[in-house]
Amino acid sequence: MNQRSTLLPSAVEAIGGTPLVEMSRITRNVDGRILAKLDHLNPGFSKKDRIARQIIEDAEADGTLSPGQTVVELTSGNTGTGLSIVCGIKGYPFVAVMSRGNSMERARMMRALGAEVVIVDQAEGAIPGQVSGADLELIEAETIRLVEDRGAFRADQFLLKGNFRAHYENTGPEFLAQSNGAVDAFCDFVGSGGSFAGCAAAFKGHNPNIQCYIVEPVGSAVLAGQPITDPNHRIQGGGYSLSDLSYIEPHMVDGYLQVTDDDAIANARRLAREEGIFAGFSSGANVAAALQLLDGPCKGMSIAILICDSGLKYLSTDLWE
User: Fold this and answer.
1) How far apart are CA 7 and CA 116, in angstroms?
2) What is the pLDDT of residue 316?
3) Distance, CA of 106 to chain centre
4) Residue of 273, 194, 199, 293 lying closest to 237 (CA atoms)
5) How far apart are CA 186 and CA 34, in angstroms?
6) CATH 3.40.50.1100 residue ranges for the chain
7) Rounded CA gap, 170 and 306, in Å?
8) Is 48 a known active-site residue?
9) Is 283 in contact with 71 (CB distance < 8 Å)?
């Protein structure tokens, strides 16, 4: 559907169908192409709008979410923004549980969209702006408490199949349709694992030879089997040092890539300056990883990546200093 020529009943139906852009300026001195899906143009400015819609609509369909029931989920801010939009339109009170280490633009945005935002202090010794696995454990504990206290529906992005389905049924097929199937490889910075797993399954179903790579921060590449030496990396939205991500099946993974904080930041800035794409840390990490591939095993190929969220969500961080 061409959303621009169609009258939509709400912002929920505006989720997805984002443009695919070739980043020909960043790759002008590189042998190969990077095809970037602009998911920062979703209504909540991130790819997580997709899973918010899918999780809520799945729960409505199977009866696990009752009319007017409170919805609760932990978030670095993007899933929570998507849920704020979807729940607000559909009439469900939403409570977002978020670490104090995440950028406060996200909390302000969720509150503006009608959500209740519960901020959880970071673990002892944690660095502001750098959310670790220990921080995530504290957020999880508070989320469980709120679900029990309020009889809420847990929109669990780490466990519910809607996270996978949103990308398997929509994002991956969109990539293939918009590129006329011209995708040779895909790399994705992993948070909950849903966008990697869903897109990888869609790509491999279309062509088993499409190579799919997980992207993690240097020093926190637990999925690659490396020791954790820097859990307090600066790439918000992933790299939480979690090894048990239910969506990711080993046979879908062709390799693992690591990106430094500095490379993620430098490439997010390049996106803005050279391509006019104002995005966040994880999008910069995806560009850095794609350039690694084009300089190595995928030279001359077309690499698909997601532009995960908007740079507007990081104005208070050192990303834009």
Assistant:
1) 30
2) 86
3) 14
4) 194
5) 9
6) 3-47+161-320, 48-154
7) 13
8) yes
9) no
Q: Decide if pLDDT at 2 tops 60.
A: no
- Which of 37, 46, 47, 48 is an active site residue? 48
Query: Does the active-site annotation cover 204?
Result: no
pTM value surpassing 0.70: yes
Residue whose entry in the numeric block shows the structure tokens 């009889």: 151
Contacts for 151 with CB less than 8 Å, ≥ 6 apart: 69, 70
- CATH code given to domain 48-154: 3.40.50.1100
Residue 247 contacts residue 197 (beta carbons within 8 Å):
yes
Query: Which tens digit of pLDDT belongs to each residue from 96-130?
Result: 999 988 878 889 999 999 999 999 999 888 777 67
Neighbour count for residue 8 (Cβ, 10 Å): 11
Contact yes or no for 94/109 (Cβ under 8 A): no
Which tokens go with 9? 């009943």
| Per-residue tokens: 319 | 């990303």
Give the model confidence (pLDDT) of 147-178 as tens digits: 999 999 999 999 999 999 999 999 999 999 99
Tokens of 275: 């391509």
Confidence class for position 68, pLDDT limits 50, 70, 90:
very high
Q: What is the CATH number of domain 3-47+161-320?
A: 3.40.50.1100
How does DSSP assign 165-178, residue by residue? HHIIIIIHHHHHHH
**Residues 164, 200: contact at Cβ < 8 Å?**
no
Q: Are 131 and 240 in contact (CB under 8 A)?
A: yes
**Helices and strands counted in the chain (H then E):** 9, 10
Q: Token digits for 168? A: 């398997």
Closest-CA residue to 83 (of 74, 97, 68, 94): 94
Among candidate residues 84, 99, 220, 282, the one labeled active-site is 282
d(CA 258, CA 282): 12
- What phi and psi values does residue 299 have, to the nearest 5 degrees? -55, 130
> What 3-state class would DSSP assign to 55?
helix
